[in-house]
Amino acid sequence: MVEPKMSQPLSSSVGDYLKAVWGLAGPGVAAPKYLSSRLSVSSASVSEMLRRLQELGLVEYERYRGASLTEEGRAEALRLVRRHRLIETFLLEHLGYPWEEVHEEAERLEHAVSDNFTERVAQLLGHPDRDPHGAPIPGADGTLAREDSRPLSGASVGDRVRILRVGREDTPALTHLQDRGLVPGRVLRVEEVRGLDGVVTVEDEDGVSHALGGVLAASVLVRGL
Amino acid sequence: MVEPKMSQPLSSSVGDYLKAVWGLAGPGVAAPKYLSSRLSVSSASVSEMLRRLQELGLVEYERYRGASLTEEGRAEALRLVRRHRLIETFLLEHLGYPWEEVHEEAERLEHAVSDNFTERVAQLLGHPDRDPHGAPIPGADGTLAREDSRPLSGASVGDRVRILRVGREDTPALTHLQDRGLVPGRVLRVEEVRGLDGVVTVEDEDGVSHALGGVLAASVLVRGL
DNA sequence: ATCGTATTTTAGGCAAACCTAGAAAATTTT
DNA sequence: AAAATTTTCTAGGTTTGCCTAAAATACGAT
Testing the interface with B: which of A114, A119, A121 to mutate, by most B Cβ within 10 A? Predict the structure, then answer.
């Protein structure tokens, strides 16, 4: 397969790579392919950058295998994630941003902002440990709260669960869920789980039923009650 | 004279040049020398950048002469100044930044922020038309309020004046003045103006006298009452 | 196990900003 | 007005990050 031609000359840079490696890999190994699509960058750029990140000691990288974070890299990634989530929270709660604009703005801001700024924002927000999507905000000391959540898609009929967190940054889904009041904290009862298409039907606290497609259900993280 | 060696590989970029040209030149012509020191960049870089800015139609540039802003360049510069001043105001009033840290943080932020962000901040602040130093904030439409102010250093004994604005971004002076309550809005009576060293002595509303060195007095802009 | 396809890497380039060194123009001094 | 000095410009380099094209490796299917 011929590699598709890239268009925009946008800049990503070290931090974004770290966040991306952290993103889906967690403790595991991120494939260049994944990073390439995640960062909208050619795989050639990924190779090159991974080599550099390794030299910087932020990543462990084996050619043709992929990369995983070193302790230092993980710390740096968490620092950025903290920034990102605090900034998002701030944009939503203090500047009245709509969901769909938050992520992009935060993405740009987090590169410009100092730790000083970040901590002042944290203070302004009352040192939250979750952002509005329910995603945990790493502590200033690099701690990340463990969360024992499972995707709603794996629930069984009759389960009563509380929404801990919704999806990643994909806007349309977020908006859809928010419109239905399916936000972190909400308690649901699972009415039906269809095996074929993965559609999950739930009833909320007000007795209203909602049917969620498989992908959506998988991006809603819950904890049993 | 041999050109001094530069050290830090910091980045400045188009916007900073525009602001710098606007800075002291206003409608006039900014000399490369001035830009070089203002931006902490070698004069070689200035030459190169001015050529680029001219190609972009933001600046009128004649080699060995200097550069002045085109209409478009001026608009762009004002947009950045607006951002900068709004962000500074926000940092001071909402995040509790101390004076000495504001400028640097704002300088970095103004490159990352969108117009959307800027206008939301403006709204949060109640659309101020002056920043905390008393500097006018250009309007979203590119308007800049005229101010008929004169430097305090040019006042005569006996004058009663109101402080409209203090200095530029040089921190030590700002702190000094603020400690003495010499901030925008304050009303003063000029007690003495010494010709030799330019020291101006004023009495404030509480009857306290302050002696200001020539440079300081020149950076306090006032309007007669 | 091998062939074909998909993924990754290498090689070679480009653009933005900045730098140093040294040449050219302007300005100031004698 | 010529010399000396200062300022500005030109030339040639560096770094960062990204790209395309083509070579190398891995993987999946027969």
Answer: A114
